Amino acid sequence: MDPPSCCHVVAIPYPGRGHINAMLNLSHLLLSSPFSSRILVTLVLTEEWRALLFSDSDSARHSQPQLPVGLRIATIPNVIPSERGRAADFDGFIEAVYTKMDSPVADLLDRLDPPPAAVLADTYLPWAVPLAARRRIPLCSLFPMAATFFALLAHLRRLPTPTTTTTTTIEIDDQSLEQYIPGLTSMRLSDVRHLFSYGTLERAFEAISSSRKAQCLLLVDQSPLIQSHRRR
Predict the structure, then answer these.
(1) How far is CA 199 from CA 89, 135, 178, in A?
(2) Range 3-147+209-222 has CATH code 3.40.50.2000
(3) More exposed terminus of the chain, fewer Cβ within 10 Å: N or C?
(4) CA distance linking residue 204 with residue 216, whole number of Å
(5) What pTM was estimated for this model as a whole?
(6) Residues 28, 31, 37, CA angle at the centre, nearest 5°?
(7) pLDDT tens readout for residues 117-167
């Protein structure tokens, strides 16, 4: 591919299997478009995730994802806790993702050839937004979970915070979320109370807030699946 004629997109997923799969799927969509011959996608992974997903061993080749033409892998050092032990200190893992990945990714962006024309970054990597802005590279933020969950996080501060269990609190918990967040008619406050106990909730708020400064927000759309199911 002739570098001057291609659009180089750098895809930066959050280092978790579901997030990486979502970014891979989006990369496949880009590279199956009518303009795929003009698109180059660089997927950024830690060295550990590169080894987990794309091992050179014969036994792993049968289960590893196939890379389409136009997709290449670039790695950064393992600056975050290992995938194998992260569950023991998930809060610490989140903190490392938020504070230690930005520098090696920045160094990588400055070395890439051809220079990036756009960045696709997971919403849970809020540092990617200012990183791209400093280089005047447009950034699209990918939220790989349900759009309803994004709306919930974006408006969670509107909800009354948990208090002691009283009759009044129980009555409030029975309220529909639509009173606080438009469109969420099928959920009640009691369905989301557990979110307030997450130690990483403030980090989630930071990610949602940062996504507002991106040039584009990409959300998962299941409506084609729902419509297909209804026709059966």
Answers:
(1) 11, 33, 26
(2) yes
(3) C
(4) 18
(5) 0.84
(6) 165
(7) 999 999 999 999 999 999 999 999 999 998 888 988 888 888 877 654 444
